[in-house]
Design a protein that fits this description.
Chain A: InterPro entries: 2Fe-2S-bd_N, 2Fe-2S_ferredoxin-like_sf, 2Fe-2S_ferredoxin-type. The complex is a heterotrimer of chains A (135), B (392) and C (403). Chain A is an alpha+beta fold and 135 residues long. Helix content of chain A is 13%, strand content 24%. Chain B has two domains: 167 residues, FAD/NAD(P)-binding domain; 161 residues, 2-Layer Sandwich (D-Amino Acid Oxidase, Chain A, domain 2), CATH 3.30.9. In chain B, 52% of the residues are buried. The chains are: A alpha+beta (135), B alpha/beta (392), C alpha/beta (403).
């Protein structure tokens, strides 16, 4: 647990832990420290992937760590789009990584195949179960 | 002579209208240049949505013009190399109440009589469109031929191809002076250019260009807000607008809250190819003040929630404003100018610049080449405003 | 209605709050991060006199002073938009609308991206991200990494990571592409690097300074820059190697590195992979100024200050009545300059509130002198033309206000 912490530092000294904070990420239980952001608590556990790109499914982690790039957005207690790098870790937070979404209309595909209604989109989904994204 | 500072035709303005003109003129083999004060699509064409619609047009000349544009855009998809997120899924209008539903019924009948592919949608059709719609929406209507593009990509795609046809492009060249002797002299912040003919495609800024030649162009900036919703799960497949704002075309009163009426707010929701959502819209005359007005944004959000109440956790990632080039009769000016031979105006499309860009480009090319025009240009003449007093 | 709302609780914002509180103004400081201090928090470097500049301690000093003066500081608040009203400003935040008569924007800087293929993989982050993880959160960003981009900031942070016991393979340039531009040019990087020579008592410096007399010889310095790089604290800094690609499936596994010419062009056939599990990208800093743009403050592009900067005068006032700026939003300089600018901004705001003018005027003059002195004596100078950039800004302000 927290194996990626820098416990001792030649200038900053020993890491002082005021309080442990329990939280859940994608259904698994972890512990962070008071003063952690969601991003730092997860990185301390070796967890780097905070979401996948909504269309391609490629993994994403923190980039700027100052709230500017929005690469680290996660869902916290049901609210999506929360920046992990700026958000203070609170006790018993339920954090979910960002998932791949359907991309029902790519203009590069045959125009006639593009669904016009949501009902058509659902019908197409049922037709092609094999490579169904995880939503 | 064919040097880079001279051309047969100079087009001023690198928005969607100027880019479409540049494409058709260059494709016709005419030596031409495009002069733009910033970058391509840096004005109104990157501060708008991407509908090419007939659904909201008056039957007759308005819808004829849009239909011609739709057909040209479909052809362009084959000729242009860079994709521009062109999707032909049709579009829908939704009604707020039974009074609107009645008028929508009339609207569909008129459009069908004109031979256009319109269909009335009932309550259960609306459920098929999106499970996120409010339960109390009585219905709406569909126009099958409507399409969507990404206007920003479209401008770059047109110019990319136009350059192959010989277009000379001058960006970051703000026009400071236009004068005419033997030919036109166009002085800019990035060099001086000469041309035999000049097309003023500067949109809301067209009056400033006109003034340089003592031509008064009755176009006013009308500000519109658009919110951009963050990428999320699909909620609807195609563009949706509300019928309400067509009500005044029928001299009927629109039923909505005072703030909505005051800011000219009407729902537009466009699902983009990358699953962002453009949410509009507003209409205000505030000069060139581009600042986002939070009252307007809140009113727009409330309007969106009236139709999509389940989207109350929608992440809005940004809001922008754009200036639509308004004319008094809501038709663009696509015309030669008698007072200054060789000077053309292609501006004043208000909210229809995306819908009408391709037909505008084609018409200007036909006028310059002395061909018969694809559609009548009578209603688009510049001198139509002289016949009556224009209140500016 | 506050007398002044300060956006950003970094060295500039906190110092301004202290100065304004000393003149008894009603002050609110907001910041997006969960603790005050801004980017000062992560800073840790040795001054030429051997003393450590410890950002956490420096932040504490400011914070304690602010607390003594009962300053209201709220963290975790994001401002999304600002409107200018008849009485001042309305700041829209995630906790509602905040109203203030005066506004100080002290939002600091952000890092320019220097993207290379593979940069979206988990394990790739900006150098500043690694700094905060290392020094503030005390989290190791990986086992062994590489720093891509050689500049004042990245050299300093690489040293901080070494101090924390993090293994860095080397520092190298990003391969030149349309987005990385000058960060990939050895000549330009060399020129910039020599400005931090005094921080590193090493061969690179002695090597470089010999060549710094004229522009022609700078090119020579790159030409003769050792193939194996020069070592700073045992870590090679390469100016003739560039990272072309970051590789991995679910996270960083390796980088592809190659030799480059003095102009940054890749030498064919020199590509090879180095195993690393994290990559820090360093593209340099630019002023974080969107909020000033949103209210309609005029801007000026000044390269020496780091890019587009809100127009302001030496008292930190912008042409927009009641709007002030301080710190890195006014140009990229050290935290010490930001702190001095903050004090000056706080005093200027007190003046606008019509406080005891003779005494205040005196303090303002001292604060102005202080900014100049600190600038002249700066240990870390981000741009050699900073003075020139500052005077160009004065001219821009004059042109707009009197012009």
């Amino acid at each position: 647990m927290n194996s990626h912490r820098i416990l001792d530092h030649p200038v900053l000294g020993k890491l002082t832990i005021e309080k442990e904070i329990p939280f859940t990420f994608d259904g698994k239980k972890y512990t962070g420290y008071e003063g952690d952001t969601i991003a730092s608590a997860l990185l301390a556990q070796g967890i780097r992937t905070l979401r996948v790109h909504e269309e391609s499914g490629s993994p994403r982690g923190i980039y700027c760590n100052i709230g500017h790039c929005f690469e680290c957005r996660v869902t916290v207690d049901g609210t999506p789009g929360i920046r992990a790098c700026l958000t203070e870790l609170n006790p018993d937070m339920i954090i979910e990584s960002g998932k791949q979404q359907f991309s029902p209309f790519k203009s590069t595909e045959n125009q006639d195949d593009l669904p016009r209604t949501y009902a058509e989109f659902e019908k197409q989904l049922k037709g092609e179960k094999e490579d169904e994204p995880d939503v | 002579m064919t040097n880079k500072n001279h051309a047969e035709v100079a087009i001023i303005g690198g928005g969607i209208v100027g880019c479409a003109i540049a494409y058709y003129v260059a494709k016709a083999g005419i030596d031409c240049m495009l002069i733009e004060k910033g970058d391509l699509a840096s004005g109104t064409s990157s501060r708008c949505d991407g509908n090419i619609t007939i659904v909201d047009k008056d039957p007759g000349f308005d819808s004829l013009m849009s239909l011609a544009s739709q057909e040209l855009t479909a052809e362009l998809e084959k000729d242009l190399y860079l994709p521009f997120e062109y999707r032909t899924q049709g579009s829908i209008l939704v009604c707020d109440n039974d009074a609107e539903m009645e008028v929508a019924n009339e609207w569909v009948n008129i459009q069908n009589q004109a031979g256009l592919k319109f269909k009335l949608l009932d309550h259960s059709d609306i459920r098929q469109e999106s499970p996120y719609f409010a339960d109390d929406i009585p219905g709406g209507l569909e126009c099958e031929t409507d399409s969507l593009i990404n206007p920003y990509l479209f401008c770059y795609s047109l110019i990319d191809r136009a350059k192959e046809y010989g277009l000379k492009l001058h960006t970051r060249a703000e026009v400071k002076q236009v004068s005419k002797k033997e030919e036109f002299l166009i002085e800019t912040t990035n060099g001086s250019f000469t041309a035999k003919k000049v097309v003023n495609a500067a949109g809301v800024w067209a009056p400033f260009i006109g003034k340089m030649l003592d031509i008064e162009i009755p176009i006013k900036p009308r500000k519109g807000h658009i919110m951009v919703g963050g990428r999320q799960k699909p909620i609807i497949m195609r563009n949706v607008m509300e019928f309400g704002y067509l009500m005044n075309k029928f001299q009927r009163e629109r039923i909505a809250d005072p703030e909505t009426l005051k800011h000219g707010v009407a729902l537009v929701l466009e699902p983009t190819e990358s699953q962002n959502f453009l949410i509009g819209s507003s209409r205000q005359f505030v000069g060139f003040d581009a600042r986002v007005d939070f009252n307007v944004v809140q009113t727009m959000a409330r309007r969106a929630l009236r139709f999509f109440p389940k989207l109350d956790d929608f992440n809005i990632i940004r809001t922008y404003t754009g200036f639509r080039p308004w004319t008094e009769d809501h038709l663009p000016i696509i015309s030669a100018v008698e007072e200054v031979p060789g000077f053309y105006i292609a501006a004043g499309h208000e909210g229809d610049g995306i819908s009408l860009a391709t037909i505008t480009g084609k018409l200007i090319e036909e006028m310059i080449s002395g061909k018969e025009t694809t559609i009548s240009i009578e209603p688009l003449r510049y001198d139509r405003f002289k016949r009556k007093v224009v209140h500016m | 209605m506050y007398d002044v709302l300060i956006i950003g609780a970094g060295p500039a914002g906190l110092s301004a709050a202290i100065a304004a509180r000393e003149w008894n103004l009603n002050v609110l400081v907001i910041d997006e991060f969960l603790k005050p201090g801004g980017r000062l928090l992560g800073q840790l470097h040795q001054e030429p006199d051997g003393k450590w500049w410890n950002g956490i301690e420096e932040s504490k000093i400011l914070l304690e002073k602010a607390k003594e003066l009962n300053t209201d500081i709220r963290c975790g608040i994001s401002a999304h938009t600002i409107e200018k009203t008849d009485h001042g400003f309305s700041v829209y935040t995630n906790e509602g609308i905040l109203e203030a008569e005066n506004l100080l924007i002290a939002t600091g800087a952000a890092e320019s991206p220097a993207p290379i293929p593979g940069w979206t993989l988990p394990g790739v982050m900006s150098i500043g991200a690694a700094q905060v993880m290392t020094n503030v959160h005390r989290v190791r960003v990986g086992k062994k990494g590489i720093v891509v981009g050689v500049n004042v900031l990245s050299v300093a942070i690489a040293r901080e990571m070494q101090l924390a016991g993090i293994d860095l393979e080397c520092m190298a340039l990003p391969a030149i592409n349309s987005a990385t531009e000058s960060h990939g040019s050895p000549k330009k990087v060399m020129k910039a690097l020599l400005r931090i020579a005094h921080l590193a008592p090493s061969t690179a410096i002695r090597f470089g300074s010999r060549f710094m007399k004229g522009d022609g010889t700078k090119a020579l310095a790159v030409k003769f820059f050792p193939k194996s790089g020069v070592k700073m604290w045992g870590m090679p800094i390469h100016l003739r190697k560039a990272v072309t690609r970051i590789n991995g499936t679910n996270q960083v596994e390796s980088v592809t590195i190659c030799d480059i010419t003095a102009d940054g062009e890749i030498i064919p056939g020199s590509e090879r992979n180095i195993e690393v599990d994290f990559v820090c990208i360093a593209g340099g800093l630019y002023p974080l100024a969107e909020l000033a743009a949103v209210i309609g403050c005029p801007f000026q592009y000044i390269e020496e200050l780091g890019g587009h900067v809100p127009v302001h005068n030496e008292q930190m006032e912008t042409p927009l009545e009641g709007l002030f700026v301080a710190g890195n939003i006014t140009g990229i300089e050290s935290a010490k300059v930001a702190r001095a600018q903050g004090t000056l901004a706080g005093l200027s705001i007190a003046k606008r509130k019509g406080q005891n003018l003779a005494k205040l005027e005196n303090q303002i003059q001292q604060a102005k002198m202080n900014v100049r002195t600190i600038r002249e004596n700066a240990t870390i100078q981000f741009h050699p033309g900073i003075e020139k950039g500052r005077s160009r800004m004065e001219e821009a302000y004059y042109d707009i206000v009197h012009g």
